[in-house]
Amino acid sequence: MTSAEICIIAAIAVYLLGMLLIGFMYCKRNNSAGDFYLGGRKLGPVVVALSTEASDMSSWLLMGVPGLAYFYGMADATWTVIGLALGTYLNWLIVAKRLRRYSASLGAITIPDFFSRRYRDKSGLIEGIAALIIIIFFIPYTASGFAACGKLFTNLFDVNYMSAMIISAAVIVAYCAMGGFMAASVTSLIQSLVMTAALVIILVFGIDQAGGWSTVIDNAKALPGYLDMSHSTDIVSKSFSNYGFVSVVSTLAWGLGYFGMPHILNHFMAIEDGEKLTVSRRIGTVWVVISMTVAIIIGFVGYAMSNVGAIAPFETASDAEAILVRISSLLSKSGFVPALLAGLVLAGILASTMSTADAQLLASASSISHNILKGVFHIELTNKQEMRVARVTVFVVAVLGVLLARNPESSVFGIVSFAWAGFGAAFGALMLFSLFWKRTNKYGALAGMVSGGVTVFIWKYLVRPLGGSWDVYELLPAFIISALSIVVVSLITAKPDDEIVEEFKSI
Fold first, then answer.
1. Number of helices and strands in the chain (H, E)
2. Contacts of 409 by beta carbon, 8 Å cutoff, 6+ apart
3. pLDDT in tens, 256-292
4. Is 186:18 a contact under the CB 8 Å cutoff?
5. Entry pTM
Protein backbone atom coordinates (compact mmCIF):
# COMPACT_ATOMS: atom_id res chain seq x y z
CA MET A 1 0.00 0.00 0.00
CA THR A 2 1.39 3.40 -0.99
CA SER A 3 1.79 6.34 1.40
CA ALA A 4 -0.90 8.22 -0.58
CA GLU A 5 -3.39 5.39 -0.05
CA ILE A 6 -2.55 5.30 3.66
CA CYS A 7 -3.25 9.06 3.95
CA ILE A 8 -6.55 8.70 2.11
CA ILE A 9 -7.65 5.76 4.23
CA ALA A 10 -6.67 7.63 7.39
CA ALA A 11 -8.71 10.71 6.40
CA ILE A 12 -11.75 8.62 5.51
CA ALA A 13 -11.41 6.54 8.69
CA VAL A 14 -11.32 9.66 10.88
CA TYR A 15 -14.43 10.96 9.14
CA LEU A 16 -16.34 7.68 9.52
CA LEU A 17 -15.38 7.34 13.18
CA GLY A 18 -16.56 10.90 13.74
CA MET A 19 -19.97 10.06 12.30
CA LEU A 20 -20.23 6.98 14.52
CA LEU A 21 -19.26 9.04 17.56
CA ILE A 22 -22.07 11.51 16.87
CA GLY A 23 -24.55 8.64 16.61
CA PHE A 24 -23.33 7.29 19.95
CA MET A 25 -23.59 10.74 21.59
CA TYR A 26 -27.26 11.05 20.67
CA CYS A 27 -28.16 7.43 21.37
CA LYS A 28 -29.41 8.10 24.93
CA ARG A 29 -31.27 11.30 24.03
CA ASN A 30 -34.11 9.57 22.19
CA ASN A 31 -36.85 9.12 24.77
CA SER A 32 -39.80 8.96 22.40
CA ALA A 33 -40.74 8.36 18.77
CA GLY A 34 -40.96 12.14 18.31
CA ASP A 35 -37.33 12.45 19.42
CA PHE A 36 -36.16 9.61 17.20
CA TYR A 37 -38.01 10.68 14.03
CA LEU A 38 -38.04 14.48 14.38
CA GLY A 39 -35.45 15.40 16.98
CA GLY A 40 -38.16 16.66 19.33
CA ARG A 41 -38.51 19.76 17.08
CA LYS A 42 -35.35 21.22 18.65
CA LEU A 43 -33.18 22.02 15.62
CA GLY A 44 -31.64 25.49 15.24
CA PRO A 45 -31.82 27.49 11.96
CA VAL A 46 -28.25 26.84 10.80
CA VAL A 47 -28.50 23.10 11.44
CA VAL A 48 -31.85 23.00 9.64
CA ALA A 49 -30.49 24.95 6.65
CA LEU A 50 -27.34 22.95 6.02
CA SER A 51 -28.62 19.55 7.09
CA THR A 52 -31.68 20.00 4.86
CA GLU A 53 -29.61 20.88 1.81
CA ALA A 54 -26.98 18.23 2.48
CA SER A 55 -29.70 15.58 2.68
CA ASP A 56 -31.22 17.06 -0.48
CA MET A 57 -28.09 17.14 -2.62
CA SER A 58 -27.06 13.51 -2.08
CA SER A 59 -24.31 11.83 -4.09
CA TRP A 60 -25.49 13.38 -7.33
CA LEU A 61 -23.98 16.77 -6.33
CA LEU A 62 -20.44 15.39 -6.27
CA MET A 63 -20.95 12.61 -8.82
CA GLY A 64 -24.10 13.04 -10.90
CA VAL A 65 -23.86 16.73 -11.78
CA PRO A 66 -20.12 16.87 -12.63
CA GLY A 67 -20.51 13.68 -14.68
CA LEU A 68 -23.49 15.11 -16.54
CA ALA A 69 -21.67 18.36 -17.31
CA TYR A 70 -18.51 16.50 -18.36
CA PHE A 71 -20.27 14.18 -20.78
CA TYR A 72 -23.07 16.34 -22.22
CA GLY A 73 -21.98 19.92 -21.69
CA MET A 74 -23.72 23.01 -20.38
CA ALA A 75 -27.40 22.61 -21.25
CA ASP A 76 -28.60 19.49 -19.42
CA ALA A 77 -26.72 20.10 -16.17
CA THR A 78 -27.38 23.85 -16.04
CA TRP A 79 -31.11 23.72 -16.76
CA THR A 80 -31.39 21.01 -14.10
CA VAL A 81 -29.55 23.19 -11.60
CA ILE A 82 -31.73 26.21 -12.41
CA GLY A 83 -34.86 24.13 -11.80
CA LEU A 84 -33.49 22.81 -8.52
CA ALA A 85 -32.39 26.25 -7.32
CA LEU A 86 -35.85 27.68 -8.00
CA GLY A 87 -37.50 24.68 -6.34
CA THR A 88 -35.26 24.99 -3.30
CA TYR A 89 -36.04 28.67 -2.79
CA LEU A 90 -39.79 28.34 -3.33
CA ASN A 91 -40.00 25.35 -1.00
CA TRP A 92 -38.33 27.34 1.78
CA LEU A 93 -40.42 30.42 0.99
CA ILE A 94 -43.96 29.06 0.73
CA VAL A 95 -43.97 25.61 2.34
CA ALA A 96 -41.54 25.59 5.26
CA LYS A 97 -43.19 27.91 7.81
CA ARG A 98 -46.77 26.85 7.17
CA LEU A 99 -45.87 23.14 7.30
CA ARG A 100 -44.00 23.71 10.59
CA ARG A 101 -47.03 25.41 12.15
CA TYR A 102 -49.59 23.02 10.70
CA SER A 103 -47.72 19.82 11.62
CA ALA A 104 -47.07 21.05 15.17
CA SER A 105 -50.74 21.97 15.57
CA LEU A 106 -51.77 18.47 14.48
CA GLY A 107 -49.04 16.73 16.47
CA ALA A 108 -47.77 15.07 13.27
CA ILE A 109 -44.18 13.77 13.23
CA THR A 110 -44.08 12.23 9.73
CA ILE A 111 -45.43 13.25 6.32
CA PRO A 112 -47.98 10.37 6.15
CA ASP A 113 -48.98 11.34 9.69
CA PHE A 114 -49.51 14.94 8.56
CA PHE A 115 -51.70 14.01 5.60
CA SER A 116 -53.77 11.60 7.67
CA ARG A 117 -54.39 14.09 10.49
CA ARG A 118 -54.93 17.00 8.11
CA TYR A 119 -57.90 15.19 6.54
CA ARG A 120 -59.08 13.34 9.67
CA ASP A 121 -58.80 10.01 7.84
CA LYS A 122 -59.71 7.42 10.47
CA SER A 123 -59.62 4.57 7.95
CA GLY A 124 -55.83 4.67 7.79
CA LEU A 125 -55.94 4.62 3.98
CA ILE A 126 -54.15 7.93 3.42
CA GLU A 127 -51.50 7.14 5.99
CA GLY A 128 -50.97 3.61 4.64
CA ILE A 129 -50.71 4.61 0.98
CA ALA A 130 -48.41 7.54 1.79
CA ALA A 131 -46.16 5.25 3.84
CA LEU A 132 -46.12 2.67 1.04
CA ILE A 133 -45.11 5.34 -1.50
CA ILE A 134 -42.24 6.38 0.76
CA ILE A 135 -41.00 2.80 1.01
CA ILE A 136 -41.34 2.17 -2.76
CA PHE A 137 -39.38 5.23 -3.81
CA PHE A 138 -36.93 5.60 -0.94
CA ILE A 139 -35.42 2.15 -1.35
CA PRO A 140 -34.08 2.87 -4.88
CA TYR A 141 -33.13 6.39 -3.75
CA THR A 142 -31.10 4.91 -0.90
CA ALA A 143 -29.68 2.39 -3.35
CA SER A 144 -28.28 5.25 -5.44
CA GLY A 145 -26.30 6.40 -2.43
CA PHE A 146 -24.87 2.97 -1.80
CA ALA A 147 -23.98 2.73 -5.50
CA ALA A 148 -22.03 5.98 -5.15
CA CYS A 149 -20.06 4.50 -2.23
CA GLY A 150 -19.33 1.37 -4.23
CA LYS A 151 -18.08 3.36 -7.22
CA LEU A 152 -15.95 5.51 -4.95
CA PHE A 153 -13.94 2.69 -3.41
CA THR A 154 -13.85 0.57 -6.57
CA ASN A 155 -12.36 3.40 -8.60
CA LEU A 156 -9.97 4.39 -5.85
CA PHE A 157 -8.66 1.15 -4.40
CA ASP A 158 -9.88 -1.40 -6.96
CA VAL A 159 -11.76 -3.21 -4.19
CA ASN A 160 -14.86 -5.33 -4.60
CA TYR A 161 -17.87 -3.11 -5.41
CA MET A 162 -20.32 -5.10 -3.27
CA SER A 163 -18.00 -5.18 -0.26
CA ALA A 164 -17.51 -1.42 -0.44
CA MET A 165 -21.26 -0.87 -0.45
CA ILE A 166 -21.83 -3.15 2.52
CA ILE A 167 -19.19 -1.41 4.65
CA SER A 168 -20.55 2.04 3.79
CA ALA A 169 -24.12 0.97 4.50
CA ALA A 170 -23.08 -0.52 7.84
CA VAL A 171 -21.65 2.79 9.05
CA ILE A 172 -24.75 4.72 7.94
CA VAL A 173 -27.08 2.24 9.61
CA ALA A 174 -25.03 2.29 12.82
CA TYR A 175 -25.09 6.03 13.53
CA CYS A 176 -28.59 6.45 12.12
CA ALA A 177 -30.07 3.65 14.23
CA MET A 178 -28.26 4.84 17.35
CA GLY A 179 -28.90 8.56 17.24
CA GLY A 180 -32.04 8.96 15.15
CA PHE A 181 -33.01 12.29 13.57
CA MET A 182 -30.77 14.50 15.73
CA ALA A 183 -27.70 12.42 14.89
CA ALA A 184 -28.66 12.43 11.20
CA SER A 185 -29.10 16.21 11.25
CA VAL A 186 -25.87 17.01 13.09
CA THR A 187 -23.88 14.65 10.87
CA SER A 188 -25.53 16.24 7.82
CA LEU A 189 -24.42 19.67 9.04
CA ILE A 190 -20.84 18.43 9.23
CA GLN A 191 -21.22 16.62 5.94
CA SER A 192 -22.34 19.81 4.18
CA LEU A 193 -19.09 21.47 5.29
CA VAL A 194 -17.04 18.50 4.13
CA MET A 195 -18.84 18.53 0.77
CA THR A 196 -18.08 22.25 0.39
CA ALA A 197 -14.42 21.69 1.13
CA ALA A 198 -14.31 18.84 -1.41
CA LEU A 199 -15.76 21.00 -4.18
CA VAL A 200 -13.34 23.87 -3.52
CA ILE A 201 -10.27 21.61 -3.37
CA ILE A 202 -11.12 19.81 -6.60
CA LEU A 203 -11.96 23.03 -8.42
CA VAL A 204 -8.68 24.74 -7.53
CA PHE A 205 -6.51 21.67 -8.15
CA GLY A 206 -8.34 20.74 -11.34
CA ILE A 207 -7.95 24.17 -12.93
CA ASP A 208 -4.24 24.10 -12.12
CA GLN A 209 -3.77 20.63 -13.65
CA ALA A 210 -5.76 21.59 -16.75
CA GLY A 211 -3.34 24.43 -17.43
CA GLY A 212 -5.38 27.34 -16.12
CA TRP A 213 -8.86 28.74 -16.52
CA SER A 214 -8.23 29.89 -20.09
CA THR A 215 -7.34 26.33 -21.10
CA VAL A 216 -10.56 25.04 -19.53
CA ILE A 217 -12.62 27.55 -21.52
CA ASP A 218 -10.69 26.96 -24.76
CA ASN A 219 -11.24 23.19 -24.53
CA ALA A 220 -14.93 23.65 -23.86
CA LYS A 221 -15.35 26.12 -26.75
CA ALA A 222 -13.59 23.76 -29.13
CA LEU A 223 -16.33 21.15 -28.73
CA PRO A 224 -19.45 22.10 -30.75
CA GLY A 225 -22.42 22.97 -28.55
CA TYR A 226 -20.60 22.17 -25.30
CA LEU A 227 -21.16 25.61 -23.73
CA ASP A 228 -24.47 26.21 -25.47
CA MET A 229 -27.68 26.29 -23.42
CA SER A 230 -29.69 25.15 -26.45
CA HIS A 231 -27.62 22.11 -27.44
CA SER A 232 -26.53 18.84 -25.84
CA THR A 233 -23.13 17.44 -26.77
CA ASP A 234 -21.85 13.86 -26.94
CA ILE A 235 -18.13 14.10 -26.22
CA VAL A 236 -17.44 10.62 -27.64
CA SER A 237 -18.87 11.25 -31.11
CA LYS A 238 -18.05 15.01 -30.95
CA SER A 239 -21.59 15.72 -32.12
CA PHE A 240 -24.44 17.73 -30.67
CA SER A 241 -28.22 17.76 -30.79
CA ASN A 242 -30.84 20.42 -30.14
CA TYR A 243 -31.89 21.05 -26.56
CA GLY A 244 -35.25 22.58 -27.35
CA PHE A 245 -38.20 24.02 -25.45
CA VAL A 246 -39.63 20.63 -24.44
CA SER A 247 -36.27 19.55 -23.02
CA VAL A 248 -35.85 22.82 -21.11
CA VAL A 249 -39.32 22.65 -19.55
CA SER A 250 -38.84 18.97 -18.78
CA THR A 251 -35.55 19.65 -17.01
CA LEU A 252 -36.82 22.69 -15.10
CA ALA A 253 -39.57 20.42 -13.77
CA TRP A 254 -36.99 18.96 -11.38
CA GLY A 255 -37.85 21.91 -9.15
CA LEU A 256 -41.39 20.61 -8.61
CA GLY A 257 -39.99 17.61 -6.77
CA TYR A 258 -39.05 19.64 -3.71
CA PHE A 259 -42.63 20.08 -2.57
CA GLY A 260 -42.95 16.32 -2.07
CA MET A 261 -39.60 15.19 -0.63
CA PRO A 262 -40.24 13.64 2.82
CA HIS A 263 -36.61 13.85 3.96
CA ILE A 264 -36.57 17.59 3.15
CA LEU A 265 -40.02 18.37 4.51
CA ASN A 266 -39.20 16.58 7.77
CA HIS A 267 -36.46 19.14 8.41
CA PHE A 268 -38.97 21.99 8.07
CA MET A 269 -41.11 20.28 10.70
CA ALA A 270 -38.16 19.82 13.08
CA ILE A 271 -36.99 23.42 13.64
CA GLU A 272 -37.42 24.78 17.17
CA ASP A 273 -39.01 28.03 15.99
CA GLY A 274 -40.82 28.38 12.67
CA GLU A 275 -39.97 32.10 12.46
CA LYS A 276 -36.28 31.23 12.23
CA LEU A 277 -36.89 29.46 8.92
CA THR A 278 -36.23 32.78 7.16
CA VAL A 279 -32.59 32.55 8.25
CA SER A 280 -32.49 28.90 7.21
CA ARG A 281 -33.91 29.78 3.78
CA ARG A 282 -31.18 32.34 3.08
CA ILE A 283 -28.34 30.11 4.21
CA GLY A 284 -29.68 27.01 2.47
CA THR A 285 -30.45 28.69 -0.86
CA VAL A 286 -27.04 30.39 -1.10
CA TRP A 287 -25.25 27.13 -0.28
CA VAL A 288 -27.22 25.22 -2.92
CA VAL A 289 -26.66 27.75 -5.72
CA ILE A 290 -22.93 28.02 -5.10
CA SER A 291 -22.40 24.27 -4.65
CA MET A 292 -24.29 23.27 -7.79
CA THR A 293 -22.56 25.94 -9.88
CA VAL A 294 -19.15 24.71 -8.75
CA ALA A 295 -20.17 21.10 -9.50
CA ILE A 296 -21.00 22.04 -13.11
CA ILE A 297 -17.71 23.90 -13.53
CA ILE A 298 -15.84 20.85 -12.23
CA GLY A 299 -17.37 18.86 -15.09
CA PHE A 300 -15.87 21.30 -17.60
CA VAL A 301 -12.54 21.30 -15.75
CA GLY A 302 -12.50 17.50 -15.87
CA TYR A 303 -13.05 17.55 -19.64
CA ALA A 304 -10.10 19.91 -20.05
CA MET A 305 -7.95 17.67 -17.85
CA SER A 306 -8.81 14.72 -20.08
CA ASN A 307 -7.83 16.67 -23.17
CA VAL A 308 -4.43 17.65 -21.77
CA GLY A 309 -3.78 14.10 -20.55
CA ALA A 310 -3.96 14.80 -16.82
CA ILE A 311 -6.66 12.15 -16.36
CA ALA A 312 -7.94 9.39 -18.63
CA PRO A 313 -11.11 10.25 -20.58
CA PHE A 314 -14.47 8.69 -19.69
CA GLU A 315 -16.32 6.64 -22.30
CA THR A 316 -19.84 6.66 -20.81
CA ALA A 317 -21.95 9.09 -18.79
CA SER A 318 -22.15 6.54 -15.95
CA ASP A 319 -18.35 6.27 -15.79
CA ALA A 320 -18.04 10.06 -15.82
CA GLU A 321 -19.77 10.17 -12.43
CA ALA A 322 -16.44 9.09 -10.94
CA ILE A 323 -14.72 12.28 -12.10
CA LEU A 324 -14.03 13.59 -8.58
CA VAL A 325 -12.59 10.22 -7.63
CA ARG A 326 -10.18 10.29 -10.56
CA ILE A 327 -9.08 13.86 -9.88
CA SER A 328 -8.63 13.01 -6.18
CA SER A 329 -6.44 10.07 -7.13
CA LEU A 330 -4.22 12.41 -9.11
CA LEU A 331 -4.13 14.89 -6.22
CA SER A 332 -3.06 12.17 -3.78
CA LYS A 333 0.12 11.58 -5.77
CA SER A 334 1.40 15.12 -5.19
CA GLY A 335 2.66 14.66 -1.64
CA PHE A 336 1.63 14.08 1.96
CA VAL A 337 -0.63 17.12 2.43
CA PRO A 338 -2.30 16.73 -1.00
CA ALA A 339 -2.95 13.08 -0.16
CA LEU A 340 -4.75 14.15 3.03
CA LEU A 341 -6.74 16.69 1.01
CA ALA A 342 -7.62 13.93 -1.44
CA GLY A 343 -8.87 11.91 1.49
CA LEU A 344 -11.02 14.88 2.54
CA VAL A 345 -12.49 15.08 -0.97
CA LEU A 346 -13.33 11.39 -0.95
CA ALA A 347 -14.82 11.77 2.52
CA GLY A 348 -16.92 14.53 0.95
CA ILE A 349 -18.32 12.07 -1.56
CA LEU A 350 -19.15 9.72 1.29
CA ALA A 351 -20.70 12.67 3.13
CA SER A 352 -22.94 13.51 0.19
CA THR A 353 -24.18 9.94 0.19
CA MET A 354 -24.58 9.55 3.93
CA SER A 355 -26.33 12.87 4.47
CA THR A 356 -29.15 11.72 2.22
CA ALA A 357 -29.20 8.02 3.00
CA ASP A 358 -29.59 8.55 6.75
CA ALA A 359 -32.59 10.86 6.29
CA GLN A 360 -34.14 8.41 3.84
CA LEU A 361 -33.59 5.44 6.13
CA LEU A 362 -35.29 7.26 9.00
CA ALA A 363 -38.23 8.25 6.80
CA SER A 364 -38.60 4.66 5.64
CA ALA A 365 -38.36 3.32 9.17
CA SER A 366 -40.98 5.77 10.45
CA SER A 367 -43.30 4.78 7.60
CA ILE A 368 -43.23 1.16 8.70
CA SER A 369 -43.12 1.41 12.49
CA HIS A 370 -45.07 4.61 13.13
CA ASN A 371 -47.42 4.86 10.15
CA ILE A 372 -48.14 1.28 9.10
CA LEU A 373 -47.86 -0.69 12.34
CA LYS A 374 -49.34 1.95 14.64
CA GLY A 375 -51.35 4.15 12.28
CA VAL A 376 -52.86 1.55 9.93
CA PHE A 377 -52.91 -1.68 11.91
CA HIS A 378 -53.26 0.03 15.30
CA ILE A 379 -50.64 -2.15 16.93
CA GLU A 380 -49.91 -0.71 20.36
CA LEU A 381 -46.20 -0.12 20.86
CA THR A 382 -44.42 1.55 23.72
CA ASN A 383 -41.84 4.21 22.85
CA LYS A 384 -39.07 1.71 23.45
CA GLN A 385 -40.73 -0.93 21.28
CA GLU A 386 -41.41 1.55 18.48
CA MET A 387 -37.79 2.70 18.42
CA ARG A 388 -36.64 -0.92 18.42
CA VAL A 389 -38.85 -1.66 15.41
CA ALA A 390 -37.59 1.51 13.70
CA ARG A 391 -33.97 0.47 14.16
CA VAL A 392 -34.65 -2.97 12.73
CA THR A 393 -36.43 -1.35 9.79
CA VAL A 394 -33.43 0.89 9.13
CA PHE A 395 -31.34 -2.26 8.75
CA VAL A 396 -33.87 -4.01 6.48
CA VAL A 397 -34.24 -1.01 4.15
CA ALA A 398 -30.46 -0.72 3.94
CA VAL A 399 -30.15 -4.38 2.94
CA LEU A 400 -32.77 -3.93 0.21
CA GLY A 401 -30.94 -0.82 -1.01
CA VAL A 402 -27.66 -2.69 -1.27
CA LEU A 403 -29.34 -5.48 -3.24
CA LEU A 404 -30.93 -3.01 -5.66
CA ALA A 405 -27.60 -1.26 -6.27
CA ARG A 406 -25.61 -4.45 -6.81
CA ASN A 407 -25.08 -3.60 -10.50
CA PRO A 408 -21.98 -1.35 -10.68
CA GLU A 409 -23.14 -0.01 -14.06
CA SER A 410 -26.22 1.64 -12.53
CA SER A 411 -26.30 5.43 -12.90
CA VAL A 412 -26.56 7.49 -9.73
CA PHE A 413 -28.23 10.31 -11.65
CA GLY A 414 -30.71 7.95 -13.33
CA ILE A 415 -31.83 6.31 -10.09
CA VAL A 416 -32.19 9.62 -8.28
CA SER A 417 -34.21 11.18 -11.11
CA PHE A 418 -36.83 8.40 -10.97
CA ALA A 419 -37.23 8.46 -7.18
CA TRP A 420 -37.32 12.26 -7.26
CA ALA A 421 -40.16 12.13 -9.79
CA GLY A 422 -42.05 9.61 -7.68
CA PHE A 423 -42.08 11.77 -4.55
CA GLY A 424 -42.67 15.01 -6.42
CA ALA A 425 -45.68 13.54 -8.23
CA ALA A 426 -47.23 11.63 -5.34
CA PHE A 427 -46.73 14.25 -2.60
CA GLY A 428 -45.74 17.55 -4.24
CA ALA A 429 -49.11 18.79 -5.50
CA LEU A 430 -50.88 17.30 -2.49
CA MET A 431 -48.61 19.17 -0.07
CA LEU A 432 -49.34 22.49 -1.78
CA PHE A 433 -53.10 21.88 -1.83
CA SER A 434 -53.05 20.64 1.77
CA LEU A 435 -51.38 23.84 2.92
CA PHE A 436 -53.16 26.38 0.74
CA TRP A 437 -56.58 25.13 -0.45
CA LYS A 438 -59.19 24.62 2.25
CA ARG A 439 -61.58 22.79 -0.13
CA THR A 440 -59.23 19.83 -0.53
CA ASN A 441 -60.71 16.70 1.03
CA LYS A 442 -59.49 13.21 1.81
CA TYR A 443 -60.83 11.78 -1.45
CA GLY A 444 -58.93 14.35 -3.46
CA ALA A 445 -55.82 13.63 -1.38
CA LEU A 446 -56.05 9.91 -2.14
CA ALA A 447 -56.68 10.56 -5.84
CA GLY A 448 -53.70 12.91 -6.05
CA MET A 449 -51.26 10.52 -4.39
CA VAL A 450 -52.28 7.46 -6.38
CA SER A 451 -52.61 9.15 -9.78
CA GLY A 452 -49.29 10.96 -9.39
CA GLY A 453 -47.35 7.88 -8.33
CA VAL A 454 -48.88 5.63 -11.00
CA THR A 455 -48.33 8.19 -13.77
CA VAL A 456 -44.61 8.27 -13.00
CA PHE A 457 -44.32 4.57 -13.84
CA ILE A 458 -46.60 4.76 -16.88
CA TRP A 459 -44.89 7.80 -18.35
CA LYS A 460 -41.34 6.57 -17.78
CA TYR A 461 -41.77 3.05 -19.13
CA LEU A 462 -44.59 3.37 -21.68
CA VAL A 463 -44.91 6.97 -22.87
CA ARG A 464 -41.45 8.53 -22.69
CA PRO A 465 -39.79 5.79 -24.81
CA LEU A 466 -41.95 6.99 -27.74
CA GLY A 467 -39.53 9.91 -28.02
CA GLY A 468 -40.10 13.28 -29.65
CA SER A 469 -42.55 15.52 -27.79
CA TRP A 470 -43.30 12.62 -25.44
CA ASP A 471 -39.73 12.59 -24.14
CA VAL A 472 -40.60 14.70 -21.10
CA TYR A 473 -39.30 14.08 -17.58
CA GLU A 474 -42.02 12.01 -15.95
CA LEU A 475 -42.32 14.35 -12.97
CA LEU A 476 -43.97 17.13 -15.01
CA PRO A 477 -46.96 15.23 -16.47
CA ALA A 478 -47.38 13.22 -13.26
CA PHE A 479 -47.42 16.40 -11.13
CA ILE A 480 -50.04 17.98 -13.42
CA ILE A 481 -52.23 14.86 -13.37
CA SER A 482 -51.94 14.67 -9.58
CA ALA A 483 -52.99 18.32 -9.23
CA LEU A 484 -55.95 17.91 -11.58
CA SER A 485 -57.05 14.76 -9.76
CA ILE A 486 -56.98 16.56 -6.42
CA VAL A 487 -59.09 19.45 -7.71
CA VAL A 488 -61.64 17.39 -9.68
CA VAL A 489 -62.19 14.69 -7.05
CA SER A 490 -62.35 17.21 -4.18
CA LEU A 491 -64.99 19.25 -6.03
CA ILE A 492 -67.23 16.31 -6.95
CA THR A 493 -67.18 14.82 -3.46
CA ALA A 494 -68.35 16.16 -0.12
CA LYS A 495 -66.83 19.29 1.38
CA PRO A 496 -64.44 18.81 4.31
CA ASP A 497 -65.96 19.08 7.78
CA ASP A 498 -66.27 22.51 9.40
CA GLU A 499 -63.73 21.46 12.02
CA ILE A 500 -61.11 20.81 9.33
CA VAL A 501 -61.84 24.10 7.58
CA GLU A 502 -61.65 26.12 10.82
CA GLU A 503 -58.38 24.46 11.71
CA PHE A 504 -57.03 25.29 8.25
CA LYS A 505 -57.98 28.95 8.69
CA SER A 506 -56.30 29.14 12.10
CA ILE A 507 -52.86 28.10 10.83
1. 22, 2
2. 318
3. 999 999 989 998 998 888 889 999 999 999 999 999 9
4. no
5. 0.88
